[in-house]
Amino acid sequence: MRPSDFAKASIPDVVEQLTTDEAILLTAGVGFWHTHAVPRLGIPAIKVTDGPNGARGNYFFMSTPAKCLPSATAMAATFDTALIERVSRELLAEEVKLKAASVLLGPTCNIQRNPLGGRSFESYSEDPHLSGMIAAAYCKGIQEGGIGACIKHFVGNDKENDRFGYDSTMTERALREIYLMPFMLAEKYAKPWAFMTAYNRVNGTHVSENPHIIRDILRNEWRSNATVMSDWFGVYSIDHAINAGLDLEMPGTNKWRTLNLMNRSIESRKITKRTVKERAAKVLELVQRCAAAAPEVLDGDLVEKTGDRQSGRELMTKVASESIVLLKNEGALLPLKPKEQGLKKITIVGGNAKATVLSGGGSAALKPSFFVTPYEGIVSALGDVAPDVEITYSEGSRSYMQMPTLENEILTEDGQPGWMGYFYSHQDDDSMTPLDAVTATRHIDETRIFLSVDYPKELTKRFTLRLRGVLKPREKDTDFEFGLMSAGRAKLFIDDQLVIDNWTKQTRGQGFFNCGSTEEHGVFKLKAGVKHKVFIEFCNVRAPADDDPVEAIMDANGGVRLGGAEVQHPDELMATAVKLAEEADAVIAVVGLNADWETEGYDRSTLALPGRTDELVRKVAAANKRTIVVTQSGSSITMPWADEVPAIVHAWYLGNATGDAIGQVLSGKVNPSGRLSLSFPKRLEDVPSHGHFHHEHGKLWYGEDLFVGYKHYHHRGIEPQWHFGHGLSYTTFEHSDLSISEPKIANGDVSVTASVKVTNTGSIPGTEVVQLYVSLPTTSELTHPPLMLKAFAKAFDLAPGKSVTVNLALDKYAVSYWEDRIARWVVEDGVYRIQVGSSSAPAALKLSGSFKIPKRFEWNGL
Hints:
By secondary structure, this protein is an alpha/beta fold.
């Protein structure tokens, strides 16, 4: 019998045959990534894998190289549901299959309530309609490709600090109209196979045990058939979670749902056998869907693979380039045309230009099958159009939080990239003394070694890892600064000399999912032409700290990280960049954040770019009036120099094809069409949730209520740096001839169509995004946001002088609000105003009209 034969099984018959113990086992995972198998009944296990911008596979340690797509904010910036559906179907689904998995843990569609949120890059937008439509396209595409989508984090997981305990306290209107809406749209249009509950509480109750959210809304109102699983270690009870409707606890390590505890809960009548079997049945439904949709996964060898490392590169570059947003372009500095513009020498500066910045950190991180840096992509693109242009480079200002990892700097003794790792068991589980004999040996090609649960299973509970390699010889004598961080304890030796002691005593830090130490530093003088020996000793028992004397065993989140860089005085770095800028005909500054600043596990503390980045931009802009700034971040950043530079391009995190996409846009091979998926404020104090983004004794007050993102800026009359939906093109467009149909009301729904004529008034082909915003009747007794995005469309590849009519459809979702008193959606009678334009900026909404709904009605469900 093949595992995929379960596709033909009768779920009711299988459930009836389950013993109570088998049903219990099915309601929790096995290990970190699998569901439980019941061989006697032909029930296979299925494997899930982290996304949402790629499929990492089972391993954090020495993971299987994979393709990384742009961040969710970048995907939403395409305003192109068809493209996201295609990418999910053709690329993501196939990547998941290569990792021998059946379910991808994505998409993430929480709301960008505050750009400081550590995982903001993982979520699409501050706008619930854009978030929901992109999420629906993502789910639809990947499920058409035979892979289950597990949409997350349901709901209100909008920050990271204290994420297991804080209470997202909000009005029911805000919950419905803002935070649940993306999930509701995804359920309506794509029906995800699984929902993942958030870690946090909502209005007093953890979501994994919240009957109002799981049972009342998801199950009863939306009639969802999805399997509901927890986030990893996001279960805090047995009876509350089981009874609320949480089908699957993940992972299977350190779980609540053991046979002992579950049977005791049944015996004490906290839960019933019937309820346990109901939860098991929902897990079996997911297993059956997976077996039917992609039988080749379950029947395969279950070995993770990378496949062709370059396959899909064209599609990856397409989605990346279509997400890039041209924020400013004075004097038509872009696209770069060196011959026409007289550019003979271009300098590239910035801490992100040569760095490997492909995504944010945490669950979204993976090992890329290939990666093109911005520097490589720009040089290649300029080489295609002007091979004689001289390119110079200076970092100018360092932008990393942690020292850059050293994968490309360390070799084994026999010349392989990386180093050798020797694992040692200890004398017993409680001993700190390693045995003399090596237990396991591994060739390791990474210097951020997050062992998680991937270390050799034959080791004792406490173990030691010794890492040995040599540094590539330097061309000259160099003072080199090393950085060492560990979740556990570690020491670094260079040529047998102790350089960093992170073993004896530590300071707790935020790395390795908040289990690591802070990064400790040490400097060693490297000699020209010498292969210096590198040796790290690591033990998975962390050292005491001043504020935490507990020497805990890191049995799930152990790891060690070695980084480093040449010692250079910051003033000298800055001066070099400025001098090159003075000598060049144009400057491209590539600056921004990376996965250390934006990551799962903790929030940012500022919207400013790191270190002296802002100073670098200002100084090179003063030195060269042709300065182009390319910014990389997954969420909003402040740009205090925005008025001082002629051209700004926002490039998000773009995945493997980062450099390809940036190069194509700067050189004009691609005419940018991305639009901002969230507002960029001028200062942190202007953010809607400022002042109530941090919890107070566990309470997180959503005081901005419905006025999230651009709705707040309009409501308060605050001018952001860049409006939601903003984005320029290398050509120009005109919107005209707005026509609005008479509303048709039937079967509890509304149908209105707005049509707009779009004309390319420029000199080159381009693609325009048309955005439609609705304002509810001014006669309403309630307060509503001043405008809400309710439809969008793209006019693709419009030739100069050509026009096309774009149709934008509206339904009941565009005209409804949640009425708390009756727990229903309401469509009021009255006049609804429509504004259409190229962004949410008041000056960009040049077309307006209205339609009237003659009679009030109510609805519920989807």
